[in-house]
Amino acid sequence: MPTSASSPKLSASLEQGGTPIALSDVTASDSTLRRFLHGLPGVDAVGLEARAASLGTRSIKTTAKAYAIDLAISMVDLTTLEGADTPGKVRALGAKAVHPDPTDRTTPTTAAVCVYPDMVATAKEAVAGSGVKVASVATAFPAGRVALAVKLADVHEAVAAGADEIDMVIDRGAFLAGNYLKVYDEIVAVKDACGTSARLKVIFETGELSTYDNIRRASWLGMLAGADFIKTSTGKVAVNATPANTLLMLEAVRDFRAQTGVQVGVKPAGGIRTSKDAIKFLVLVNETAGPDWLDNHWFRFGASSLLNDLLMQRQKLATGRYSGPDYVTVD
Fold first, then answer.
1. Exposed site from 19, 79, 123, 169, fewest CB < 10 Å?
2. Average pLDDT by stretches of 10, the chain with 331 residues
3. Bridge-partner residues for 39, per DSSP?
4. Which residues are catalytic?
């Protein structure tokens, strides 16, 4: 069975161009890490986008759609990341995560609620006993432009308050400048700060990485550093999760597991608002990484409004009609 990214199996060798390479050699210096990352196959942008578009046209039967909607609900990280967040809003969000549709207790819980570190304790109390995880953005989300000591303090605060998962942002400026080892070392330090109690999601902000080649490099960099999940975006920029960039990241985790035996999750975030969109992403998962990733331990949606549409479509399948505007809460 695949191991998590924190496994010592990461000490095993990788392979590039048919040549085995020890992980310790890959990450020994900026130059060796750059050589490895720039030695990854270049991305055929036209082919990538065409495949993503093609998979997005797949139709599924009604019974499969009902299953997909419930699966998508169970994969949602229900999120509020606003300056105006209050304890009351977070408690309400937690209650919705536990019982997304209070009129139908067969509705799955969401995977997690995602909040700022100062709201973790409130969220933890709101979802107590439910199995819903509490995720917290940290490392000076969303820009990440502070000293490492501040980033680690952010993480320690969230973990001490009970966070089950940490969503960190990489230093995109360092990455784009080619300072890969700096980014790698920061991920390793944050992973260490998570301890054994919190899984780590590493956010690339794909909309700022400019090229598909950079997204592939960032994916491998995050996985080499011990990410439990790789995540597209903060949801705070113009371009967030797309079928193409998510497909590329799914290819990366598939290939990484094939080489190392270590399974890493994927989280597209930002801009996924409808059930139709969510199902397209699930098709991408199944057809690219495979069914092992069709579980909320390995795939998540970072979203705030997606859940409402999933609930509306679920109710439509059950009753044959759409509900009125008051059927779901406005978060």
1. 19
2. 45 71 86 95 97 89 91 97 95 97 95 97 98 96 94 97 97 96 97 97 96 98 97 91 97 95 96 94 97 98 92 91 70 64
3. none
4. 167, 231, 267
